[in-house]
Amino acid sequence: MSSKVFLHYDQAELDRQYDQRAWAPNAAAVIERYAAESNQVRARLGPPRTYAYGKTPAETVDVYPADQPDAPLHVFIHGGAWRSLSKRESAFAAETFVKAGAHFVAVDFAPLPKVSLAEMVDQVRRAVAWIYSNAQQFGGDRERLYLSGHSSGGHLAAAILTTDWPGQFSLPHTVIKGGLCVSGIYDLHPVRVSARNAYVRLDIRLEQELSPSRFVDSLACPVVVAYGELESDEFKRQSRTFASLIERAGIEVNLLEGRGMNHYEIIETLAEHAGLLGRAALAQMKL
């Protein structure tokens, strides 16, 4: 009989729970759509404005600007299991926000194993700090800065939302006014004991420091947590538990399930004004 390594899962089943592609046979096709739709958006909107937030080539953001001055900002953090994709495949939702009167900002950062997960979290935090501090450069209203992230980007978004902005960056506690965390991992313990840790390389200290679910008391804005109905039980549990912890901390939270959608499909609704995530994000921004 196989021994249990986490909850009721043996090693093989835990590894399967954290392998999104095992639950989404169309994963490759959907990921190709991200890139194709991003290219189509750039063809319609024109190329983005690119800014560096750090010294390495990966530390840049692409801004798809709205026509309005002092427009709110929607910052998007891409997924890719912390080791693939980039800002180039992250423009598929830009047109929806630009047409609604918001700047859309796609964040780039170095993947694993070029950097550690701790360094990646630091890069994205510095990116958001740069956006907040330099929003006037591209006509953005830094007091209306909102954030979303998908998959591993959902984890990163949650890590950003639970940042100690005054202590780490000498910025206000309320840098971000609303967050959307989609299909993320918020407690890294099961990742540490799964096959994924062969490349994520977590130890007990990093598990604690990089698990957003353990820092919900640092949240300072409403959060939407979303997942697909067809995701693994563990990904659904991660989202439900994270939302429950946020609620227990006294922060406004809305938990959404994408009916009939898998891990990869749900984020495409961010590109639809009336889609599950597009509607939620725009409502959060009062657009």
CATH architecture: 3-Layer(aba) Sandwich
Count of beta strands: 10
Distance between the termini: 55 Å
Main beta sheet strand tally, sense and closure: 8 strands, mixed
CATH class: Alpha Beta
Share of residues in helices? 25-40%
Which strand order do you get reading across the main beta sheet?
A: 3-4-6-5-7-8-9-10
**Proportion of beta-strand residues:** 15-25%
Number of helical segments with 4 or more residues: 11
Radius of gyration: 18 Å
- List the secondary-structure elements in sequence, H or E: EEHHEEEHEHEHHEHHHEHEH
Low-confidence stretches: none
Q: Main attributes?
A:
287 residues, alpha/beta, Rossmann fold, eight-stranded mixed beta sheet, 11 helices
Write a short abstract of this structure.
The protein has 287 residues and is α/β, with parallel strands linked by helices.
Tell me what the structure shows.
The relative contact order is 0.15. By secondary structure, the chain is of the alpha/beta class. Helices cover 37% and strands 19% of the residues. The strands form two sheets. The chain has an eight-stranded mixed beta sheet, with helices on both faces. The protein has a two-stranded antiparallel sheet with strand order 1-2. It is globular, with a radius of gyration of 18 Å. It is built from eleven helices and ten strands. The chain has a single domain, classed as Rossmann fold (3-Layer(aba) Sandwich), CATH 3.40.50. The protein has helices spanning 11-17, 27-45, 94-100, 117-134, 152-161, 165-169, 189-192, 197-200, 204-209, 233-248, 276-284; strands spanning 4-6, 9-10, 49-52, 60-64, 71-77, 103-107, 140-150, 178-182, 223-228, 253-258.
